[in-house]
Amino acid sequence: MLFILTIVTVSRVHQHFPFIAKLRPALALVALTAIYASLNPRRLTSYNLLHTWPARVVFALGILACVGAPFGLSLGGSARFILDDYVKTWVYCFLIIGVMRSAADLYTCVWAYVVSSGILVWMSLFVFGLSHAGSAAARLSNLYSYDANDVGLVLLVGLALTLLVFQCAGKRGKIAAAVIMAGIGATIARSGSRGAFVGFIAMGLYMLFSLHSEDIFKRVAFLVVIVAGLLIAAPQGYWDQMRTLSNPKADYNWNTKDGRKQLIQRGVGYMMDYPIFGLGMHNFWRAECIEGDKAKNRVLGKGIRCTPPHNSYIEAGAELGIPGLLLWSSLPLGGIVAMRRLRRKLPKSWANGDPEERFIYLTTLYLPLALLGFAVSAFFLTFAWTDIIYILAALMTGVYVSIETKLQRGSTAGPVVVPPPRQRRGAPVQPRFLTAPQ
Q1: Which residue of 1, 116, 254, 295 is surrounded by the most CB atoms within 10 Å?
Q2: Interatomic CA distance for residues 432 and 88, integer angstroms
Q3: 435: buried, middle or exposed (CB in 10 Å: 19+, 13-18, 0-12)?
Q4: pLDDT band per the 50, 70, 90 thresholds, residue 423
Q5: Taking a C-beta distance cutoff of 8 angstroms, is the pair 278, 68 a contact?
């Protein structure tokens, strides 16, 4: 049920089929999952929620959002967003964390995101059209709940996870993953997103110069497949649009009041004005339209644009204050560091060990790549409170749990240390790796 829920959540495929959308599949799946969990409590473990640092960070963000809401601009506005939207993301994240018991569960969750990416690729190539509206380049338009920029970020994360399953899957899985890889390159081109393009460049450089455990020819081959899809599908005006990145000061985002530079400056100002609890979750637009300098200095008779922050870091800092910025940033940025450190602690033999060992080892290679793609692209998008980073947090938890489970059962390569005895029946031993990055 969580596999299907992930597909619905990430791909939004149900919105393409009105008869399915009327059934409210996400709500129904969450309810069914909760019922099943209550009837089969042994299928869940609360240990992951308390002893893994990504879960603790997600928990702390939820608590901070609730505690800080009365100190922001609008208690009602924050409370409505938390109850209507954020709590669903929060619960969904903890449901995934709660079912993580082994590498098999982690592998299933990774495949769910890859399948979601494949569905998004299909809709982007064969369902959604292109339009020049608001852009010099033709780009995806008339999407459902995502816009073209959002699709780019979602698929950059999917690209890294697709590379991961390609390494571990059987023949059919490899073929499917290769097709999705090429399709992601094509969809990034059709999105016309400069943020996605910058994220892809960062991921490509990381693959070439940081994935030393992987053969250089394999890394280059992956990039060739993706770039081929991008080159073939690039619509009219795409490369002209990308060339504007070389002269950012000439772009509207630099010199207009609703451009990203001005938004960042105002967002930092909001964070300094409300440093502890912030404006309150989902109150950035309210500061822009009602309370902030932009609203106070408006010209009578002229409209005012209530803009979102267009930057996830600014969104987290402005709406939850400096503590919220540090907590939220620790997921993408701290996650990259934590996964790289974790890989160095693993036995080198796991890189060529049994299928489970190899999958765990490869996860510590490609999950930082997914986090990097998110971290770069999220700088240009309002994605702090959406599902993607919380899915990545759950996957990081799954990596820690998979390692501990493997060590408890014994590894063909031999455990790193002898684990301590079980504290109680059915509970994992005190883990060695479940610590926050220093």
Answers
A1: 116
A2: 31
A3: middle
A4: very low
A5: yes
